[in-house]
Amino acid sequence: MRIQKYIGLTMLPGMILLAGVTLLCQSCNSNAETNMADTKQAYIIPDSLLKTLTIDSVKEGELINAITLTAQVDFNQDKEVNIFPLISGNVEDARIQLGDYVTRGQVLAVIKSSEMAGYSNNLIIAETNLAATKKQLDATRDLFSSGLASNLDVTNAQVNYDQAQAQLEMVKRVLKINGNDTSGQYVVKAPIDGFVVQKLINNGMSIRPDNTNPLYTISDLKEVWVWANVYEANLDKIHMGDNLNVTTLSYPGRVFKGKVDKIMHVLDPNSKVTKVRVVINNPDYALRPQMFASVTITNTQHQQALFVPSSALMFDASKYYVVTYQGSGKSSITPVQKISSFGDKVYLSGGVKVGDKVIASDVVQIYDQLNN
Question: Which letter, b or e, does each residue of 23-32 get, where b requires 16 or more Cβ atoms within 10 Å of its Cβ?
Fold first, then answer.
């Protein structure tokens, strides 16, 4: 018993010394961590980099909503003409080819036709009949003046002459409708200026007027239609007269301006899209039917919103950020909420205020440095 007490008393100073040493070590570690934290500094943008950066400011303006839709270029059907055969016959000279530009009145093809020969023959008969009835009328009037013919005879001669004259006028109109050619040929002419976009006629081909297919289709491509596909969820965002931009793969740097001209009221049962029509001026024929296009429709809600350049916006971890600049090389990451974008503008809500400076170039580099 005495021995145990003696051992306990002997070890007590050592235990106290060990505890003191432990506390001292913990205190030293804490001081070291504090010193390391004090020496860590916020990232300062170097002057060499700062000189190359674009620094913009948060502005406020009218909120513009934009929707991008897939679309396809088509003919303007109001300026498209199908040319059907009016007579039967054999094609002798189909001189115009698919894609050729033609002017109004230009000869497209020549058809040898027995019907045209018949119209020419009818013209000769009608002219001869008119001349004969005119002579008969003049003779009857002379006889009436001499008392050798009655008033009834003059009346009958006048009726015959009038009928012959009417017959000649009818034959002339029929001949004119069919090209007014008296050599037995039917000449197909272009009714408008434009491009031949369909051709279903060849030399040696026999045609007849009950053919349901046109010989030629001519379209004036100085104005084209663009049909955009609008999904059901976006119908409330499209309005008649909304301004829009049309772009194509063929001309990536060119924007064609237009407005919503017509909104169809029928949805496709399979794709659940409705069509929106845009009329685009096409003076240099850059837009061609069947081209794929993108249509960006814009409209305003008459409300104000903050906006920054699109180059200032950073997307990371499913969130949007901007890097605000406080001066003297100091910057910070600021979370924001994106409302919409239009052109090079991004509309925001929250996080920033009008006049705040934002970095609008090399944002990824600065963002990574601030995160590290």
Answer: eeeeeeeeee
